[in-house]
Structures are given as structure tokens and as C-alpha cells.
Amino acid sequence: MELRHLRYFVAVADELSFTKAAQKLKLAQPSLTRQVKNLESELGVELFDRSHNRVSLTEPGRRFLSDSRHLLSLAERNAEAVRQMKRQNEPHLKVGYIANRPYGLLAATLNAFRKHCPGIAIHLHDLPAWEQIEALEGRTLDIGYVGSSPPRHPQLHYSPLCSEAIVAAIPSDHPLSRKSKIRLQDLSDLFFIDITDESIGVSSEWTIEQCQKDGFDPKYLQKTDKLATALQFVSASLGVALIPAQFSSPGHNGVSFHAFDPELERECAIAWLADNRSTALQLYIAVATEVARNASGSRILSI
Predict the structure, then answer these.
(1) How far apart are CA 134 and CA 153, in angstroms?
(2) pTM given for the model
(3) Using N-to-C axis directions, what is the helix angle for 3-15 and 18-25, rounded to 10°?
(4) What is the gyration radius of the CA atoms in the chain, in angstroms?
(5) pLDDT in tens, 123-167
(6) In the chain, is it the N or the C terminus that has fewer CB atoms within a 10 Å radius of its CB?
(7) Residues 63, 69 contacting (CB under 8 angstroms)
(8) Quick one: CA torsion of 240, 244, 250, 253, rounded to 10 degrees?
(9) Per the CATH hierarchy, to which homologous superfamily does domain 92-161+267-298 belong?
(10) Pairing of strands 92-97, 121-126
(11) Phi, psi of 104 (to 5 degrees)
């Protein structure tokens, strides 16, 4: 008796039809009928009652069906355990990133890595920065694109991978809107709007740090987790917002976008567990660093 005989028997028992079971199994019906008869001969019992032009299970057949399902389920679990073991032994890399961000550099590094290391599987996980940090600490993630102001942990290594330009969103009727470029200090008398969405990623901590370098503390009017809402506040002359240049597309009524002079940039980092000696990880870091170095002089608008 082989597992295939049990599968044939269960298929006929489910369909109560040799014709339908043969179609489901993609077998010729005479072959299926013969295989089931061979099984019955080996067991010494009839599993099906074929009288009255219909197929039904006999009492021994009902008992054997329950046992057969259990054995097939056990066989599948064992097979999956072996497959899982094989997958775990294969080289792989688990990469985290913040959802909803345009990942120009991430895509470029993944393409370069696949060409350089085609035998290493890559698994992507969209997670907020703090969840990436937890996953890195728990060793369920190998490396994370954690943005510009990730939670810091002494066991992790952080490496700036690129920088992106930051611009100011200003009410279009404000006098500053007539300037092509502004200084950060020009905003010292205005209220700031804090955008908490990690897909935008200009955190209040980073903004405060930059403003303090210019000699003032920013005044915050409101928090919102949506860029659209923040720009509505700006349009209503309720304040200004700092956003990555990639989000400063025209078409927002009542809002103008302005670069800074001197240029305001933030670094975007990758992070990994310092004692993670994975060969796949080390190869990926090398490839990502090289791609970032070659991409517009390491100046990338998005990671």
C-alpha cells in the first residue's frame, strides 16, 4: 500500500463517483477503478458499495476513510517540515522597509544584489521603523531601511546610505513664497506642522535638531499623520511643514514649495545587528553601499 492509493481512495470517497474522482486526480477512470480494487484486495474488505448504479461507502470504508485522512495529513505535515528545514538551510536575506515610501534605492540595490548573488533568496517585510528595530533585535530581520530618525539600540549598527533634500511647504500668500530659496531661520516666527506618518519621515525630533542648529526652537501648531491634511493646514495659512523634495509636486492649491539655502538634507540609514555574521547580509551591505555611492554621488531622493 502506498500513499497514492490512500489519495485515490479519499478522492472517490469525497466525490462518491469514480468518474468525478478520476477527473479531479487527472487519471483515466479504468486506471483509478483498478487501483481502488487492488487496495480493497490488499485490505481484504470492500470499501465501496457499487450496487444500484451508485457508489457509497461501506462501514469498513467509513472507518478507513477517517484513518486515511489522518495518515495523509500526517504525511503532508512531515513533508512540509522537511521543506521548511530545506528553506532554512538555504541562504536567504530578510529585508525590512517602511511601507508606502517610494524606494528608488531599495529597488536598485535589490536588482544589483540578485545579479551579484542569484542563489540567495530575498524576503521583504514592510514594517514601521520601531518594528524593524524589534525584528532586528529578535533576529527575525537581517537588515532594515529605517529612515532618518530610527530608534537607537546599542546592539545595532547604523549606516547612512543616502541623503535626500528637504523643502518647506509655505502658504502661497506668505511673503516668503516670493523667494526661490529660503533660510531655515526665515521660518522661526511661523508655526510648524508635525507630520507623523513614517512614509514622509521628517520627524519632529529631526526638525527640532535642525532648527536649534540655526538658533531657534520650532513652534508646533498641530500634528497629523497625513501629508494631505498637513498641506491643507499650510494652504489655510496655519503653519509650514518640512517634507522630502520628492513629495513637493505642483498642484496643491495655496501651497508653494521652496528649497533651502544652504541646502537642507537628511541622511537615510540602514541598520543591522552588529553581531550578525551572515554572509548574505555582508554581501548585501557591500552591494547597497556601492549602489548608493554610484547613484548621483550618493545623493538619492528616496530609499
Answers:
(1) 10
(2) 0.59
(3) 130
(4) 31
(5) 899 888 888 989 999 999 999 988 766 667 788 998 888 788 899
(6) N
(7) no
(8) -20
(9) Periplasmic binding protein-like II (3.40.190.10)
(10) parallel
(11) -60, -50
